Amino acid sequence: MSKTLLAIDQGTTSSRAILFSNKGEILALRQKELTLHYPQRGWVEQDPEDIWEDTLWACRSVLEETGEENIAAIGITNQRETTIIWDRKTGKPIYNAIVWQDRRTADRCARLKEQGHEKVITEKTGLLIDPYFSATKIAWILDHVTGARARAEQGALAFGSIDCFLLWRLTAGQVHATDASNAARTMLFNIQSQEWDKELLALLDIPAALLPEVKDNAANFGQTTLLQQPLMIGGMAGDQQAALIGQACFKEGMIKSTYGTGCFALMNIGTHFKRSQNRLLTTVGYRLNGQVTYVLEGSIFIAGAALQWLRDGLGLFTDATESEALALSVADNNGVYFVPAFTGLGAPYWQPAARGLITGLGRESTAAHLTRAALEAQGYQTRDLMDAMCRDSGVDPSFIRIDGGLVANEFVCQFLADMLDKPIEIPQVTESTAWGAAALAGLQAGVFNGLSDIAGHWSAARRYAPQMDATQRAALYKGWKNAIQKVL
Ligand SMILES: Nc1ncnc2c1ncn2[C@@H]1O[C@H](COP(=O)(O)OP(=O)(O)O)[C@@H](O)[C@H]1O
Ligand SMILES: O=P(O)(O)OC[C@H](O)CO
Predict the structure, then answer these.
(1) Most buried of the four, 21, 195, 371, 477, by CB within 10 Å?
(2) Spatial CA neighbour of 217 closest among 463, 379, 26, 439
């Protein structure tokens, strides 16, 4: 009987468990939406116990529902950068999870830039200085939770992104480890030497005793006995890197772009580290058998979250799926542009202090125009990234693979093809992120012999060809650039 694979996909919006066949078919999926807390302007937190309980519930429910006993291994994938510090003895977090979108450390980041540290940080980590990454979030917790720094120095505390925290809990505190793609998002990990960087730890005053071991993406991460059967955790990757794997972007120049809470476009640039010249990130795509494949990354902080805001903040609809019909009920955006910079602007602008803007409103503007503007923003933001990526890499890709919750929206997919003037491909396996994690676990467990086995399971469910004429494309994009200038 062929083996199955269990993926844990702990995203910003929800925690999921998915059971896959060895061909990538979804056999069962359970998911729970996760609450975000906004204690102050620019702060975003989650309760680590919610994250853990929802994840465990999702895994147990999938196994109960299917009665599956033939699982080869578990793969974990996660919202990246989100920071948890916990007590090694009790396993209890000492503060809420500080979510990747949180901006509370913007001043600290500005100081680091003023002091001239960006060059060395970028050279070592491939990142730019921004509150997005874990380092300043860790420092904030150590500075604000009473006694935390002293306990960290004594080795009593552990830091982890969500993957690492879930692994710790799944292995009942036996394993404190992460993978190279998640470590690369801390701003403390040297992605050239593949080591925690002593100079950066000193710069941010972060004790090395907090940090996990860093493993390949396919590795033996330990065993869990908390589910119906003992299972090995064999794969781990940040969600965007997992989607890169699920989308089989294994050749140089291939790009995937994922539209969930945020949008993240990754281009495979091969095995040589190369710094971006256009304010993109260089990061670890995957590390297998010690060999790193690097990617250029464009990170947009708000994608689907803009639709959540229209739903929850303005009450324009009750479900994000309604946005498509609403957007199509008007002929065009009628001059309305929506820059959803709620938590600052990411690539290629990197302005943590920027905030959202709606421009071009007239007496005739309606909820439909605003919704259309929010959906069009996905295309404009991606165009900003693609232009920078093509300049950086010298590669003009002939197609782009996309995935994530938003690709259920056909208006968005067509608009992306139109704004990028490139064919867009949507895979048969819609859950690319979870499938990527499962595939990594499958590599470790011997279900797959190599990346070509995984690539063999990729097929397109749908392709969108560009239809917009060049004049219209240029005029719409010019309107976006004007709106961006106002934000900046
Ligand atoms: N049909 C749709 N149209 C527009 N947005 C959608 C649609 N379906 C889901 N979304 C958006 O997609 C996001 C969820 O995508 P998902 O990939 O599950 O996110 P994450 O991985 O960040 O948890 C939500 O922000 C939601 O608003
Ligand atoms: O929750 P997502 O899928 O939007 O992904 C979040 C990213 O990993 C943040 O870097």
Answers:
(1) 371
(2) 439
User: What is the dihedral angle through the alpha carbons of 483, 484, 487, 488, rounded to the nearest 10 degrees?
Assistant: -140
From the CA of 239, give the closest atom in ligand 1: 21
Compute the distance from residue 85 Cα to the ligand 2 centre, in Å.
19
Could you tell me the two tokens for 239?
């969600």
3-state DSSP assignment of residue 144: helix
Tokens 């699982």 correspond to what residue? Answer: 71
DSSP-assigned beta bridge partners for residue 30: 17
CA–centroid distance, 260 to ligand 1, in Å, is 5
Q: What is the ipTM of this complex?
A: 0.96
State mean pLDDT over 354-358: 94
Q: Whose CA is nearest to atom 6 of ligand 1?
A: 406
Query: CATH classification of 4-238, choosing from 3.30.420.40, 1.10.10.10, 3.40.630.30, 2.70.98.70?
Result: 3.30.420.40
- Give pTM, 2 decimals: 0.93
**Inter-axis angle of helices 470-487 and 410-420, nearest 10:** 100
Confidence of residue 1 (pLDDT cuts 50, 70, 90): low
Q: Is 261 annotated as a binding residue?
A: yes
User: For 229-245, how does the pLDDT look when each residue is reduced to its tens digit (9 = 90+)?
Assistant: 899 999 999 999 999 99
With a 6 Å cutoff on the Cβ, whether 323 touches ligand 1 is yes
The 3-state DSSP class for residue 327 equals: helix
Instruction: Output DSSP code: residue 399.
Output: -
Tokens of 387: 């232009």
Whether 223 is in the pocket of ligand 1, judged by its Cβ within 6 Å, is no
- 242 close to ligand 1 (CB < 6 Angstrom): no
Which residues is 74 bridged to in the sheet?
6, 233
Amino acid at 87: D
H or E segment and range at residue 77: strand 71-78
For the chain, give every domain's residue range: 4-238
CA distance 404 to 320: 13
Which listed ligand is nearest to 325 at the C-alpha?
Answer: 1
Decide the pairing of beta strands 45-46 and 71-78: unpaired
What lies within 8 Å, CB to CB, of 202 at 6+ separation is none
102: helix, strand or coil: coil
124: its two tokens: 């070592």
Tens-digit pLDDT profile for residues 461-484? 999 999 999 999 999 999 999 999
Q: Which residues contact 219 (CB under 8 A, 6 or more apart)?
A: 179, 234, 235, 236, 444
Burial of 349 (0-12, 13-18, 19+ CB in 10 A): middle
| Cα atoms in the Cβ-side hemisphere of radius 13 Å centred on 439 | 31
